[in-house]
Amino acid sequence: MSLATGAAEFSALRAECAALAATPERTLSLSRPVWIFGAGQFGQDLCKALLAKNFNVLGFIETQPRIVQLLNLPVLGWQQLNDTDRLAQLAIGIYNRGMPLDSLASLAHEAGFRDVMMPWDSYGQFDVQLGWRYWLGRRDQLLSNLDGIEATHAQLSDATSQACLRDIVLFRLGLNHAYGGFRHEEPQYFNQLTLTEDAQKPIHFVDGGAYNGDTLLDLANLRPIERAYLFEPDAENFKALQRNLRNQAITVHCLPVALSDGYQILSFNAGVGEAGTISENGTVHIASMALDDLLHNQAIDFIKLDVEGGEIAALNGAARSINHSRPVLAISLYHRPQDLWEIPELLRKLCRNYRFYLRQHYFNSFDSVLYAVPQ
After folding, report:
1. β-strands 264-269, 277-278: how paired?
2. Is the CATH code 3.40.50.720 the one for domain 34-131?
3. Are 280 and 252 in contact (CB under 8 A)?
4. What dotted CATH number matches 153-374?
5. Distance between CA atoms of 80 and 60, rounded to whole angstroms?
6. How far is residue 20 CA from its own chain's centroid?
7. What is the pTM (predicted TM-score) of this model?
């Protein structure tokens, strides 16, 4: 598919969005009981939101129940349900990168449920109670920003990237359930889009959100690394990072701080969803710094950012380094709904004469990564 064809496809997306905007949002009915499929953190938080609004929550369903009771409600397997149970509403309370939502919905339908609510349906109704949940947002947030999304679409350099963006938007609007089980074949971060230089050329690498060092070790298996700067503000992750890299023959600087647009003390919440995030209500305090203040025009070849929603601040804090070194960038695009248009807009200003690509590396549109590659 050509880029010109992609423009026509985006017009078709706009038409689907217009039709969706004309239909009422799906909501759970207060007059009917509700089962929750999934007893993990998202399922429990959804249950609390429902109970706070006086919904009749019958309990939790798990394919293989590990416990019999949770939040004073029963936890049942599919085979324990009766015909009356199946007449209730079912809200999918599983939301992560590992379990495709289209497969979960199929399980619910195969078990006899007809009224199945997806996480975006529930979030549209209980966004205030559920708070930040990565890319989940009210549907009008996407529908009212189609111009910005189209600007991202036009910025992308190949048809695969454009199709990926359209699929992500339609999936998050509930118009493309099958995309929940899709991911691209390319390895995350280091692939034919990003490792285009001589395989023997040593790389200067920056990892924002280094976790336990796994990304650096992946790169070390592919290219020689001359110097690396790894930023990880979570205390437990930082301990694992130091432990995993202790015996590596690589010049690595591990810093227990977050990347941002300058030095400051931030509130950090490590207990929401799959990972931590910067939050005014955070229970842990961490320091942040700008990459420019550390590098001072040192050469850098590759910057990877997976900083739980702080990508824009981190990019602003690296503007001089990007202008000076023109590194390859791999930027996470799934931590906030507005990342789909706000991060590409910033990169258009920071990255002159770059090509931009989008790839999907895990299920349910988690780990979507925007690659910026200098021409």
Report:
1. antiparallel
2. yes
3. no
4. 3.40.50.150
5. 12
6. 24
7. 0.94
Domain coordinates in residue numbering, the chain: 34-131, 153-374
Distance between terminal CA atoms of the chain? 22
CB neighbour burial string for 363-372, b if at least 16 within 10 angstroms, e if fewer: bbbbbbbbbb
Strand 284-290 vs strand 277-278: parallel, antiparallel, or unpaired? Answer: unpaired
Q: What angle do CA 181, 186, 190 make, to 5 degrees?
A: 130
The three-state secondary structure class of 199 is: coil
CB of 269 within 8 A of CB of 276? yes
Helix (H) or strand (E) holding 92: strand 89-92
**Distance (Å, whole) CA 286 – CA 264:** 8
**94-122 per-position pLDDT tens digit:** 999 999 999 999 999 999 999 999 999 99
pLDDT tens, position by position, 230-254: 999 999 999 999 999 998 889 999 9
Classify residue 206 by burial, with Cβ atoms within 10 Å: 0-12, 13-18, 19+: buried
DSSP code, position 83: T
Per CATH, 34-131 and 153-374 having the same topology is answered: yes
**What is the rounded distance in angstroms from the CA atom of residue 279 to the CA atom of residue 371?**
27
